[in-house]
Amino acid sequence: MKIEEIFTFENLVAAHKACRLSKQHKRGTIMFEIELGRNVTNLVKQLTNKTYRLSPYRSFTIYDPKKRLIEALPYKDRVVLMCFCQHSVAPRLERHLIYDNAASRKEKGTHFAVDRLHSFMRKLYIKNKTNRIYFLKCDIRKYFQSINHEILLEQLAKVGFSADEMWFLRMIIESHGSIGLPLGNQTSQWFALLYLNGMDRLIKERLRMLYYVRYMDDFVILSEDKSKLQLCKQQIDEYVKGLKLSLNQKTQIGLLSDGIDFLGFNHKLSATEKIIKSLRGSAKSRQRKYLKAIRHYYLNDVLDDEYIDVRLASYRGHLKGTKNWLHICNRLTSLKHEKRRTKKLLQNNKLYDILGV
């Protein structure tokens, strides 16, 4: 596609509407929207003339679930990347990715990846009549920070992007130094999906491993044959080295009867085919701290009932099917009763003071 076909006025306005979801209160969104017509017109001109350049990144650190450096672009640049992903990157790459590549794709995500893992566990149990099934769990060391730009650009060129699209792709990739991708860009998610696509094909098509699912750089293979998984691990290690990557210390082979950590949960296959899904230890610790903080701010009227209801709905979606959901639900709902009791005691104490009791 040509640049002028991707970055039309209508496409950029639609991308703005998608970007502003849950961001309406942010200063960058408000300032862009005040002069929406002029801002979009300027972007169309700059992109058509190929004079457009990304603004400097804003860096900040998050610590949940672990320490990460996030590099975010200003709002107008996020609108441009959203538009490019919607009309160029996503339609093109979707045709090249395997079905079990679960991250950042429409109608997929963490729930899809977990459901696929559980379906594979059940199929293998039915096939072998035992829970003595092995898993190979792999993780890439510092994945986003280690992606090689030249290898990535070669992969993108093979996908079939036009010269105009490759100009824009190169500009995005090279805006972040000589190596690695920024965690804050939407394009980075798609590039990360494609970068290991050759490994996906190796596992599914050459090694013939049917029970495989990947969520970004976190992936799992199941088999009743431990030696097959050892061969897979060796082949995968060699392949990722060719991409200037390496497997980290989390990579392991184990038994499903002992449980496997995947996407924040521990998944264990019992001797009766039952799959027990629970929060892993580090996640439980974080949830305890988070609930303690919510309790403090709620009882001090910093948070309201609406916030508690939103948190309950969020936890219901995230912890669906786990044994931890009921405990957290009870903790949050009991806060409302605790607050009512506290208010009643305060009112009674004030009444006693007035009466001089």
Structural summary, described in words:
This protein has 357 residues and is of the alpha+beta class. It contains 15 helices and 9 strands. It has helices spanning 3-6, 9-19, 27-34, 36-48, 75-94, 110-128, 143-146, 149-159, 163-174, 186-195, 197-206, 226-242, 281-299, 305-318, 325-355, and strands at 58-62, 68-72, 134-139, 212-215, 218-223, 252-255, 260-262, 265-269, 275-279. It has a 4-stranded antiparallel beta sheet, sandwiched between helices. Strands 7-8-9 form a 3-stranded antiparallel beta sheet. A hairpin with a 5-residue loop joins strand 8 and strand 9.
What's this model, at a glance?
This protein has 357 residues and is α+β, with helices and mostly antiparallel strands. Helix content is 57%, strand content 12%. The strands form three sheets. It has a four-stranded antiparallel sheet with strand order 4-5-3-6, sandwiched between helices. Strands 7-8-9 form a three-stranded antiparallel sheet.
Strand and helix order:
HHHHEEHHEHHHHHEEHEEEEHHH
Which structural class do you get from the secondary structure elements? alpha+beta
Can you give the mean pLDDT? Answer: 89
Oligomer: single chain
Radius of gyration: 25 Å
Question: Which key phrases capture this entry?
Answer:
357 residues, alpha+beta, 4-stranded antiparallel beta sheet, 3-stranded antiparallel beta sheet, 9 strands, 57% helix
Write the layout of secondary structure elements.
Layout: H1 3-6, H2 9-19, H3 27-34, H4 36-48, E1 58-62, E2 68-72, H5 75-94, H6 110-128, E3 134-139, H7 143-146, H8 149-159, H9 163-174, H10 186-195, H11 197-206, E4 212-215, E5 218-223, H12 226-242, E6 252-255, E7 260-262, E8 265-269, E9 275-279, H13 281-299, H14 305-318, H15 325-355
Antiparallel strand pairs: 1-2, 3-5, 3-6, 4-5, 7-8, 8-9
Helix pairs in contact: 2-5, 5-10, 8-9, 13-15, 14-15
